[in-house]
Specification:
By secondary structure, the protein is an alpha+beta fold. It has 16 helices and ten strands. A hairpin with a 2-residue loop joins strand 6 and strand 7. Bound molecules: myristic acid.
Length: about 425
């Protein structure tokens, strides 16, 4: 057995916070390894990257998710008691509830709703001096996903509910006031959703039976019991929040279209397959979720290294999407690489890897892809706009990483 390469710092939490997306891969390069040990929040952690690492990370006999999320992430991004912290049969059963919402038909319904809302929004843009795309996408997605999920949302509340949902992912990596606002936003959001779950259960509110709100409110665990209303609220949030987080990808689509005018031209006369390749390359190339966490169930050996029982392990998602052994010229934006892609579930892992049913791979991945297509199509063919001088660098220290000004557009109006 070989000794795991060890990062010599006393603690690397600050270094990780300074460069969250490249922390693991830069050290793997320096130490010439796919696995190394470091200390985060004073605890020993093993960091791994690459296709083989993803395969072992998603082996459910080796890794557990119970109690893995740090408390500050549980109190903001994920909530407590939801699917992210479950294992085994209970996890698969809960995951089925989410997967039942993700039929082609249902995803198509959400796509159409979002398209209509975008079209209405674009008509308002000509009255504005400037439009901030990140915020526009967040509001469109909040409106669309609430309507789709059977969560009643008064038009007057769209801005407030959007801000609450956005705080959960946009400030999850922050410390100080933004972190505290995210915690408050989660409390408010869960209270709102808990109220809706209770109304559905008492029959005072009756959404259609195929909506997420109805399905979550009536979901029963393996013992046949309804979910605690609080946990049901966390799971309903798990449908709304990640959908609104696709706004990050939409800004990144706009950024890619701006940076690559030739690709933009091609998409204007392109096929659905061209658009699909473009969106997949945005998901590979741009930073979204930096890494995923788990802990070893029992001690085991991988690639000659010892993983002790209970040791926390981080899988590098961004670094695997940029691994030169998988991706030719990984730091070039090239949608063509997806023309003949084999669909390997352990190489393109921006939203986790493995199987959607068995593993902790984001069930909303297909929603993200379709929403990115709707927005990209709109930006290419449905509207015209200028991109005024602004800092367009993707701020890699920001979580999630988007340009500092959130992609400002001027003279924006419908193309029709
Ligand atoms: C979700 O809402 O579940 C997905 C949101 C993804 C947004 C982008 C990533 C934010 C990173 C937050 C900090 C993670 C620290 C482990």
């Amino acid at each position: 057995m070989s000794e795991l390469p060890i990062e010599t710092n006393l603690d690397s939490t600050l270094a990780l916070a300074r460069d969250p997306y490249r922390f693991i891969s830069s050290r793997c390069e320096t130490l010439n390894t796919d696995a190394f040990e470091t200390r985060l929040l004073l605890q020993k952690v093993i960091c791994i990257r690459g296709e083989e690492a993803a395969k072992v990370f998603y082996d459910t006999s080796r890794f557990s998710r119970v109690g893995v999320a740090p408390s500050r992430i549980a109190k903001t991004l994920f909530g407590r008691g939801g699917v992210q912290g479950m294992d085994g049969k209970a996890h698969c059963h809960r995951k089925m509830m989410f997967m039942s919402l993700l039929t082609e038909d249902k995803i198509g319904g959400l796509t159409q709703l979002a398209r209509n809302i975008w079209n209405r929004r674009v008509l308002q843009w000509s009255r504005k001096d400037r439009v901030v795309l990140y915020r526009q996408a967040q509001e469109v997605l909040t409106e669309a996903v609430c309507q789709w999920a059977g969560v009643p949302l008064d038009p007057a509340d769209v801005a407030r509910r959007t801000s609450e949902l956005v705080a959960l992912f946009d400030y999850a990596g922050n410390i100080g006031p933004k972190h505290w606002w995210a915690r408050l936003a989660r409390k408010r959001n869960e209270a709102w959703l808990r109220g809706i779950i209770k109304q559905i259960r008492t029959g005072t509110y009756q959404p259609p039976e195929d909506t997420a709100a109805f399905i979550v409110a009536n979901h029963r665990d393996l013992d046949g019991n309804l979910l605690d209303a609080q946990i049901a609220a966390v799971e309903l949030n798990n449908i709304l929040r990640p959908t609104v987080a696709v706004s990050v990808y939409i800004v990144q689509c706009a950024h890619a279209l701006h940076e690559h005018p030739v690709i933009r031209e091609q998409l204007a006369d392109g096929s659905p397959d061209d658009l699909h390749c473009f969106v997949q390359e945005v998901r590979r190339y741009y930073p979204f979720f930096p890494f995923a966490g788990a802990k070893a169930k029992e001690s085991f050996e991988w690639q000659g290294y010892h993983f002790p029982s209970g040791r926390k392990v981080l899988l590098d998602l961004y670094g695997t999407n940029h691994d030169p052994r998988i991706w030719d010229r990984p730091d070039e934006f090239d949608p063509e690489r997806f023309r003949e892609w084999d669909g390997n579930p352990f190489t393109l892992i921006p939203q986790g890897g493995g199987d959607h049913y068995e593993n902790h791979r984001c069930p909303g991945e297909w929603i993200a892809i379709e929403q990115m297509k709707v927005a990209s199509d709109l930006l290419v063919s449905g509207c015209v706009y200028d991109v005024p001088a602004q800092d367009l660098q993707i701020a890699m220290t920001r979580l999630p990483a988007i340009p500092a000004e959130h992609f400002v557009m001027t003279n924006a109006r419908s193309a029709g």
